[in-house]
Amino acid sequence: MSAQGSSSTATPIIELHGVSKHFGNFTALKNIDLTVGAGERVVVCGPSGSGKSTMIRCINRLEEHDEGSIRVNGTELTDDLSDITSVRREVGMVFQQFNLFPHLTVLQNLTLAPLKARKLPRAEALERAMQYLERVHIPEQADKYPGQLSGGQQQRVAIARSLCMQPKIMLFDEPTSALDPEMIKEVLDVMIELAEDGMTMVVVTHEMGFAKRAADSVIFMDQGEIVEAASTEDFFSSPRSERTQLFLSQILAH
Amino acid sequence: MPIVKRKKTTKLARCIDVVVIAVAIAFVAYLLHQVNNVMVYKWHWGFLPEYILRWDEEQQSYAPNLLLKGLAMTFRLAVWSMIFASIIGVIMGIMRTSKQLFPRMVSRAYVELVRNMPPVVFIFVFYFFISSQFVPLLGIDEWSVKASPETLVVLEILLGPPELFSNVVSGVICLALFEAAYITEIVRAGIQSIGRGQFEAGDSVGLSRTQVLRWVVLPQAIQRVVPPLAGQFITLIKDSSIVSLISIQELTFLAQEVAYSTQYVFEIWLFVAAVYFCICFTLARIFAHLETKLAVYRS
């Protein structure tokens, strides 16, 4: 199965073939096949414990898969650490809990990786950081510490931090689940703008409004398997599987 | 109701306080009574000042005598040992949390070996088997003979009198290796208190494992372990007295010499106890004060 939406002709940038992952006796992922083209926006949804987080964490190898193969940006993910580090530089990740570096200011959070991993000159790293802070609409917070910001602001800083590495792919692991309702919109707005600019995105979320507005295709996972993968339009108008229909009726009930 | 209850407990607590203090005063009075009237001990505090500062006839000025020299040496030992112990402790602490088995094994073995041995035994084993073989190899004595007078002045401030250089170095190595085992555990706890999310965030922006440790994890871990490290420094000052057993010429060792030669055992040890107490208590107060200040600054 592949997540092929409107841009099915794009060159594949993420390819998962027969990927499985076990935690002890528990099977988190079962024989996952997934192809994401460059510039494609994919939303992954499903009940909790369905393996969606595990799957996108496998894409930048925060989790190691047990079987199958994963190719990201042309590189096969193996035990080779230098390969993985170079893949990670091209793959941004936004976490549910933001995971900003609390001992650094916003600006230092944004410049750390460009300075140390990309070896950019300081002036250029600073300029780039300010540019992305403006893009997430909080340039005035540059000199504050993460602890002084609201959840929504922290998550936008986290997005900017990833963008500062100028990645080819952005992964979002439930980016709005830890936020107060009034802050969800400001984060989703930033993500929609990012999608409109043509970034390749894989987003684990329950925000179906975001999926309808920004996604090319939607994947529904349950019990470690991809149950349904369809273009956004088809997914919401005519879901094939019963489990998908049930999930959608529950989540779209109000 | 709860208010009444609290009042009762504070009243009771006050009563217990009064009783405890009364008992303590009575005990001290009894001791003094025993010493003065039963043992008929005559206190000789008068000799002490000259063992701190003596009048030098040649130089026509005051010069530090044994006790002050000992105190200076205790400080040198404590500061140098703390510096080396911190370096070893941070490295071992990192190894302790390594993903690979070998570094973990080495640091674990080191920590367990040191911590499960009485300090005195550790010091003897170290001194007779390692220090006596190893320190002469460093060639400190030959080197200090060749040093220029200017460097010697600096070295004297840092290490004490030249004839004691190898003596001090043995003491420092010994104490540093001993305390580093405890610092290792403090650093390990600090690193392990940093959430998994910080490692993952560092990984996901493309930092290498060393970079994550250096720029993300260690700064936060060190910040968290500063209070226990400060406590360890105070412990180190107290522990430094055990190297008197291998003739390192610090406060306890020299106090012992003075006690033997003057026979005023009571006075000397009471005085030395008071000196250690004042240093450690003062440092503890200062560190506690700095900690509250830092906490305010951080929030």
In N-to-C order, the SSE pattern of chain B is HHEEHHHHHHHHHH
Detail the poorly predicted runs of chain A.
Answer: 1-7
Major pleated sheet of chain B: 2 strands, antiparallel
- Beta-strand proportion of chain B: under 5%
Task: Quickly give the structural class of chain B.
Answer: mainly alpha
Strands in their spatial order, largest beta sheet of chain A: 6-7-8-3-9-10
The count of DSSP E runs of length 2 or more, i.e. the number of strands of chain B, is 2
Description:
The complex is a heterodimer of chains A (254) and B (299). Chain A has 254 residues and is α/β, with parallel strands linked by helices. Chain A is built from 9 helices and 10 strands. In chain A, helix 3 (106-116) packs across helix 4 (122-135), helix 3 packs parallel to helix 5 (151-163) and helix 5 (151-163) runs parallel beside helix 6. Chain A is globular and about 55 Å long. Chain B is mainly α and 299 residues long. Chain B is built from 12 helices and 2 strands. Chain B has helices at residues 2-38, 48-52, 66-96, 101-115, 119-138, 140-146, 149-159, 165-192, 196-204, 209-239, 251-262, 265-298, and strands at 53-56, 61-64. Chain B has a two-stranded antiparallel ribbon with strand order 1-2. In chain B, a hairpin with a 4-residue loop joins strand 1 (53-56) and strand 2. In chain B, helix 4 (101-115) packs across helix 8 (165-192) and helix 11 (251-262) runs antiparallel to helix 12 (265-298). The mean pLDDT of chain B is 87. Chains A and B meet through helix 2, strand 6 and helix 3 of A and helix 9 and helix 10 of B.
Question: Keyphrases for this structure?
Answer:
heterodimer; A: 254 residues; alpha/beta; 6-stranded mixed sheet; 4-stranded antiparallel sheet; disordered N terminus; B: 12 helices; 80% helix
Chain-wise SSE layout:
The complex is a heterodimer of chains A (254) and B (299).
Chain A: E1 12-23, E2 26-37, E3 41-45, H1 52-59, E4 67-72, E5 75-76, H2 81-90, E6 91-94, H3 106-116, H4 122-135, H5 151-163, E7 169-173, H6 181-196, E8 200-204, H7 208-214, E9 217-222, E10 225-231, H8 232-237, H9 242-251
Parallel strand pairs in A: 3-8, 3-9, 6-7, 7-8
Antiparallel strand pairs in A: 1-2, 1-4, 4-5, 9-10
Chain B: H1 2-38, H2 48-52, E1 53-56, E2 61-64, H3 66-96, H4 101-115, H5 119-138, H6 140-146, H7 149-159, H8 165-192, H9 196-204, H10 209-239, H11 251-262, H12 265-298
Antiparallel strand pairs in B: 1-2
